[in-house]
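Section 5.1 Outputs to date
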Amino acid sequence: MTIPNIITLMRFFLVPAVVFAMLSDRMGWAFAGFLIAGISDGVDGFIARQFNQRSKLGAYLDPVADKLLLVSVFVVLGFMGGLPLWLVVAAVSRDALIVGAVLISSLMGHPVDIRPVFVSKANTAVQIVLAAWVLAESAFAMAFGPVRTWLIIVSGLLTVASAAAYLVSWLKHMAGYAEGDTPTR
């Protein structure tokens, strides 16, 4: 087990701690846990690259740990009224769409390798900033102006765009296209 994998596994344990803190109205602790998870994500990636400790297990665990934390925080923030439910439903549905597409293509013997596209990376970045922003506002009992509203709008637009990009890519893959190729039929 590599050091980055151990750090990633620790992020898995932060998820219930952050959720519990949120549900217990200990938003300072939730914000701190979310920040620690974010920093540890950067640290494990740095260690993996700098010290050649990349692993196949880490390639799977790292994005799952990130998604588990982000989706959990989004769902709880939606439940608590910190995020609009339409955004929570859109974000969770997008992730379910991606997982479902991967499972279906694997079951059909035509596995797809999902690689993050730019719009997906931008979507994740905005969702992380939004979650941190809302947690910070709650932790410090302050409203930092209209930034939350703009982050919600941008996150919603990027969530839809990202889902559409993955859906188009998956449909092409399942129809027998390769990236940039013409149909095989």
